[in-house]
Amino acid sequence: MTRIDTTPTPPEETERFRAYTTAHLDELTARGGLDEVQRLETRAVATVLPFRVNDYVIEELIDWDNVPDDPMYRLTFPQPDMLPAEDVSRMAGLLQQGATRKELNAAANEIRAKLNPHPAGQMTLNKPTDDSEPLDGVQHKYAETVLFFPKQGQTCHAYCTYCFRWAQFVGDPELKIATGDIDRLVHYLQDHPEVTSVLITGGDPMIMKEGVLDRYIEPLLRLEQLESIRIGSKALGYWPQRFLTDDDADDTLRLFERVVAAGKNLAFMAHFSHPTEMATDPLDDAVDRIQNTGAVIRTQAPLIRTINDDPRIWETMWRTQVRAGMVPYYMFVERDTGPQDYFAVPLAQAYEIFTDAYRNVSGLARTVRGPSMSATPGKVCVDGITEVAGEKVFVLSLIQARDPQLVNQPFFAKYDDEAVWLFDLEPALGATHFPYEDTPPSDVSVLLETDTHQDA
Ligand SMILES: *Cc1c(COP(=O)(O)O)cnc(C)c1O
To answer: In ligand 1, which atom is closest to the CA atom of 126?
Structure first.
């Protein structure tokens, strides 16, 4: 017998955003059943790397019976083995002694400095200038796209443990990439008609209230040259209420509509790390509402050891996204910043995971590209592993390049099953250098010689 539920749906609860930080960490890890030593070590790591979660992540996404192995837990909570053991015991010791905030910060800063907070080049190579003054909070690396970091958008609804931009949240404010100056960006764009896309990023731009977001977006709508405005955000995963019940949810959707009405593509670049983030009702509703504005949701995420290093996870994500009308866009290789050793998946394995997932999905999901490394010369994609004239090689190409001539030209590196990043690779088949080492842009050639092919 089918029972029809006739009870009226209760009025929708307006969930208010509430963040948890290190002050709540002990209570939360206790809920996960961690013992006292593990809890202290977790707090020790959290003095060095940023930590922030919210009610939705805690109640809807994390499976507390499965902590510490649960992927959503690992995605948001620091792990004791993310830092070298001696650094963890140093911070744990300071915490136990009741060290002052100042002492803790001094020690934490020393440890952070060892973690490559800004991979070579990010603070210098990609920073554009106007009238010979550097433009803060802007990165212009590829001709057609400019990255913009609004200063009010430099935090997130929750922090990912693998975040390559963790230096945006802790430590030296001088090292932060951010600006409040939209007029300078507009002038810069007018001087650079080749730019057709502005990517607003962070942190997470969706942490900004609609009124602030509007002040950044509205001036861009008058620029005829812009074909698209992109918003890079994890809010769909961590706080879909941003588009449903937050005070400014409706106004935000109207702003999205204005972008579309201005004849531009609003590309909502959603960051989903795991299918669990797409398995809630609020997520479905938020996706519908964003799509109803005419915006297109494209999806991307890095491949992360112990969180999503399984082809079935990617297959599930891409299928779920296509079903909801989202467009799979990039699978990234984890950046060489922060505890990269901890999260790194070797390139050979990344290629196998990508291919295993890719071969099982329909062509509609094969809009995805990867695994891709955002390195100094550009976005380097691992296209294949094969043998040429008896030598086992990686087939690579640049999806995006500082030097546009190099885009989509295959090149080869010696196969190495342990290599995790571009700088681990060597040219193959008798070549003495990689193609991008032939023609470094003249203004950055000195820097390129001294760094190790890593960056934004
Ligand atoms: C990835 C990236 C872009 C955007 O590249 P698309 O291929 O157009 O998505 C722009 N700037 C930087 C620095 C990037 O890393």
So the answer is: 13
pTM assigned to the model = 0.90
Give the domain range for residue 23. Answer: 15-113
Q: Domain tally for the chain? A: 2
412/188 Cα distance (integer angstroms): 37
Pairwise CA distance, residues 385 & 407, whole Å:
19
Token pair of 240, please? Answer: 């879909």
Sheet holding 197-200, edge to edge: 138-142, 145-148, 197-200, 228-233, 265-271, 296-303, 327-333, 369-375, 378-388, 391-401, 411-414
Asked whether residue 367 is assigned to any structural domain, the reply reads no
456 lines ligand 1 (CB under 6 A): yes
CB of 400 within 6 A of ligand 1: the answer is yes
- Of 113, 140, 169, the one marking the end of a domain is 113
Q: CA 179, 184, 188, 193 torsion: positive or negative?
A: positive
Q: Whose CA is nearest to atom 8 of ligand 1?
A: 145
Q: What is the pLDDT of residues 90-136, one digit of tens each?
A: 999 999 999 999 999 999 999 988 887 666 566 667 778 876 678 88
Whether residue 178 lies inside any domain: the answer is no
Pocket test for ligand 1, best of 123, 125, 142, 201 (most atoms within 8 A of CB): 142
Q: Which residues contact 370 (CB under 8 A, 6 or more apart)?
A: 303, 330, 331, 332, 333, 350, 354, 381, 382
Which one of 97, 113, 129 terminates a domain? Answer: 113
Cβ of 141 less than 6 Å from ligand 1:
yes
Residue 270 lies in a domain: no
pLDDT in tens, 8-63: 444 445 578 999 999 999 999 999 999 999 999 999 999 999 899 999 999 999 99
Going by CA atoms, what residue is nearest to atom 14 of ligand 1? Answer: 456
Q: Which atom of ligand 1 is nearest to the CA of 329?
A: 9
- Residue 19 falls inside a structural domain: yes
